[in-house]
Amino acid sequence: MKHVDTALVKKRMGSRLFINNLGKTLFLLATLFGLVVLVVLIYRVFSQSIGWIDIDFLMNKLSTDPNRAGIQGAVAGTLWLMLVVAPVTMLLGVGTAIYLEEYAQKGRIQSFIQTNITNLAGVPSIVFGLLGLTLFVRGLNLGSIILAGGLTMALLVLPVVVVASQEAIRAVPQFLREASYGMGATKWQTIKNVVLPAAIPGILTGLILALSRAIGETAPLVVIGIPALIIPIPDSVFDKFTVMPMQIYYWTIDSALVSEYANLAAATIVILLLILFLMNSIAIVIRNKFQRRF
Amino acid sequence: MKGVFNLDKTIENNKKVNVRELIEQNKRSVTITTVLEKLMPKILFTIATISILTTAGILFTLLTETIEFFKDVPFIEFFTGTVLKPLGEHAQFGVLPLLTGTLISSAIAMLVAIPIGLMTAIYLSEYASDKVRRALKPMLEILAGIPTIVYGFFAFTFVTPLLTNIIPSLQPTNILSPGIVMGIMIIPMVASLSEDAMSSVPNSMREGALALGATRLEVTWKVVVPAAISGIIASFVLGISRAIGETMIVTIASGSSKNFTFDVTQSMQTMTAYIVEVTGGDAPAGSTLYFSLYAVAMTLFVFTLVMNLFAQYISRKFREEY
After folding, report:
1. What is the residue range of B64's domain?
2. What are phi and psi of A144, to 5 degrees?
3. Residues B205 and B114 occupy one common structural domain
4. Between chain A and chain B, how many beta carbons pairs sit less than 8 Å apart?
5. Average pLDDT of the segment spanning B190-217
6. Which residues span the membrane (chain B) (predicted)?
């Protein structure tokens, strides 16, 4: 009895192999599509910014005259914003992560907070903007100042820091904790002196990723009402401000009227991408250098 | 440290040491350490509740203002009205133009993101060698890390002019171009989540199929993809949710015409872009226009929340355990 019809198999083998190779090529092309878009995008932005980025562009204040306009205020605003976002998310994010990983009993409350964080990560950023507008800008009557923007942003990127910190804390092996308890340390002493130092590279990586999300985020800031034209440079968290993405936004939509604004937007994008690139490089260095494997 | 030190001292003085008593004594004594020990769980719990308060805050603000809105505009009119004319004397608040704008742009985005994202995932998980994978994955991460405002700029200044060469009737602001760019933005998300799902399919299943004489493609299509389908579908649903909530790309490249149409060459406004437009125009607090902001945001929030919960449900319920 013949189980396999060899002739039929042979007949169909050619087309099966052909389809297999076709599939492989197609999948490769799809993968390369992303790469091509990335290259085109970066090439476009860089080529449009050529001749527009110089010291004057970085040091000048905002102006309606494209040749004199600079992004000093936007860069300063971004830095100020980060000064609010970084400590607030660090405190809230790491605190939440420690509670969930070290203190919370497995049960309703813990899984409720965990599910809540997962869902919070999926809420569109513009909804956070409305929360900030209602709560900080109008509710606390802060106005569109750095503090209001920073707190809104901090809540937006909170899930990133919580999840990264949780993973970092979970990766600290149990025997380190047990050794600490064995020496007579209390739970908090163990967390402070053993768990956190071991988890800090992972936490910092998460924080940097969260900050690079916050630096590029635009929608919530539009919603809380950052105006188009702000000339003074902020010098405290209670000042009005603008940030680089806002500047890109206004220049892009106005580029239909004044075509040079497209170049200014491209130049700002280049600076923004460079900052993001720098931050991500730092995150990678931290991850590779200080991450200890147990 | 403290316990050991006390012990040494008492031995020098030739006194008897009752360790149990010492421990009890230490426990009773109020020091910074003992206070912190009791306080820290409470402080940390308070911090952890802030994430819950954020959700509660979002729900509360959206709900209260939405209820105010529905006092002015009937519920039915909002969800069946095809005209959105928020300004002027005879203001009309029909959400359908925004809903079609959102759904059409998301549909275009998914038409780009699902095939390309899935094929990228298949290539990375089933075909690429370790070396190639390690070279290509950072590229996807870079693509995922580019701020959406940059994609908006790209859509407006590059993709739209490019498409105008192919479709001459394309408006300077239209829904097609931001839809495509949104799809490109979502590719990394679909690709990496699907790849995670496919990578967790055990190798023994692939080897079994290969040993039976299947080609790589047959293994992928008939074994790996069906086994990973829950994770793959979840990645699609999360991608849709991301597209619905995306703001800056559509705001920049699709303009603010509240057209109720299915013609993708026209300018359409999405729910997110409407929120940007109204908040940018300084709607006076208490006006119907101001409340409409929250009604639209509530609709948006419900849409994305349902999508996210659905994705979690799929990946939990239909996960194949090996």
Report:
1. 1-72
2. -80, 65
3. yes
4. 251
5. 91
6. 43-63, 103-124, 144-163, 175-198, 219-240, 289-311
Q: Which residue of B has its CA nearest to A186?
A: B37
8-state DSSP, A240:
B
Contact at CB, A34 and B62, closer than 8 angstroms: no
What pLDDT does B3 receive?
46
Chain A contact present for B234, CB below 8 A: no
- Give DSSP secondary structure letters for A115-147: HHHHHHHTS-HHHHHHHHIIIIIIIS---SBHH
B22 & B151 share domain: no
The pLDDT, as a whole number, for residue B55 is: 92
CATH number of domain containing B232 = 1.10.3720.10
- B185–A contact, CB cutoff 8 A: no
ipTM: 0.89
Taking only the tens place, the pLDDT of each residue in B258-283 is: 888 888 888 888 999 999 888 876 66
Q: Which residues pair with B93 in a beta bridge?
A: B84
Distance CA B215, CA B122 (A): 14
pLDDT in tens, A179-207: 999 998 889 999 999 999 999 988 998 99
- Dump pLDDT digits (tens) for A155-175: 999 999 999 999 999 999 999
Q: What is the pLDDT, as a whole number, of residue A53?
A: 79
User: What pLDDT, on a 0 to 100 scale, did the predictor assign at position B16?
Assistant: 64
Identify which of B54, B157, B308 has the shortest CB distance to residue A122. B308
In chain B, the percentage of residues whose pLDDT exceeds 90 is 43
Q: Are B120 and B232 contained in the same domain?
A: yes
Same domain flag for B56 and B98:
no
B196 with B312, same domain?
A: yes
Interchain CB distance below 8 Å, A222 and B279: yes
Shared domain for B223 and B313, answered yes or no, is yes
**Strands annotated E in B198-298:** none
Q: How many distinct structural domains can be found in chain B?
A: 2
Say whether domain A56-290 belongs to CATH 1.10.3720.10.
yes
Q: What's the whole-number mean pLDDT along residues B41-69?
A: 91
Q: Specify the DSSP element, H or E, that contains A230.
A: none
The C-alpha of A55 sits at a distance from chain B's nearest C-alpha, in angstroms, of 22
Q: Is residue B260 in some structural domain?
A: yes
Give dist(CA A255, CA A242) in Å, integer: 19
* B51, B141: one domain: no
Domains of chain A by residue range = 6-49, 56-290
Q: Which residues pair with A240 in a beta bridge?
A: A145
CA distance B259 to B263: 9
Burial label for A176, CB within 10 Å (0-12, 13-18, 19+), is middle
Chain B environment of A130 (Cβ under 8 Å): 58, 61-62, 275, 279, 293-294, 297
Domain limit, last residue, from B47, B72, B97: B72
Element (H, E) at A19: helix A6-49
> Rounded CA gap, B92 and A104, in Å?
50
Q: Mean pLDDT of all residues in chain B? A: 86
